[in-house]
Specification:
Length: 235
């Protein structure tokens, strides 16, 4: 998350004030323009389309981002990711691969269960206000062990050992929200609801993210990754 080209005093002042002035982040962005041959997406919708196009290439086994040495020197000068991905830590879920994006294109926040805690929220604020990301994707996935463990904890009325209860407590609201409807596949329903709830938080949490979203400069969406097929579907 380091950036040698941003003025730390300006960055801290604007982040603490919750203003939108750093959305431009001129010095940071200009330092990283050479990272990719593609122009930075102009809108959140453009950013989403770029991700979905990349996923289509991944499914077709026709990636274009295969030479990671290209742009290495430029990346040392700064970063300009166009989207943030809130992803599960599951080893089978690799955002850069499944969206066919090269180094420097995605700002990834990962932890088991792909929920947004205070640290994740701060990371997304940095990505949006300082790095200029246009889009946040909260990406759930099939056979999520963290959601499955939360369901088991609720059904058995027990908590897992160690620090795992913190994961269960974060995911629990999504499970409770879908349980009354008695879905045929509780794991799938809870996984989807967990992604939706966290995407909503990413777009409405003030002051920084909510202000950017209200101005049309940021969008958050929920999505689901099917491991067996490689397909990302918007929820």
């Amino acid at each position: 998350m380091c950036n040698d080209h941003a003025d730390p005093k300006v960055t801290r002042r604007h982040l603490m004030a919750g203003t939108l002035a750093l959305a431009a982040a001129g010095a940071t962005l200009s330092a990283a323009q050479a990272q990719t041959s593609e122009a930075a997406p102009a809108t959140p919708e453009d950013a989403l389309q770029r991700l979905m196009d990349g996923n289509a290439r991944y499914i077709a086994n026709a990636p274009i981002n295969i030479d990671h040495s290209v742009g290495r020197a430029a990346r040392a000068a700064g970063q300009q990711p166009f989207a943030a991905i809130v992803s599960c830590s599951d080893s089978r879920v690799a955002p850069e691969l499944l969206f066919d994006q090269g180094p420097g294109a995605l700002f990834v926040v990962r932890l088991a269960g792909n929920f947004i805690n205070e640290d994740g929220l701060a990371s997304l604020e940095y990505g949006a206000a300082v790095l200029g990301i246009k889009l946040i994707v909260v990406l759930g996935h099939s056979a999520c062990g963290a959601v499955d463990a939360t369901i088991a904890s609720i059904q058995d009325n027990t908590l897992p050992p160690g620090h795992l209860p913190s994961l269960v407590n974060a995911i629990r609201p999504a499970v409770y929200e879908v349980m009354p409807s008695e879905p045929e596949n509780l794991l799938a329903a809870a996984t989807a609801q967990n992604a939706r709830s966290n995407a909503e938080r990413a777009q409405t949490q003030g002051p920084i993210l909510a202000e950017l979203a209200a101005a049309g400069n940021l969008r958050a969406v929920a999505a689901h990754y099917e491991i067996a097929t490689g397909t990302v579907s918007l929820l």
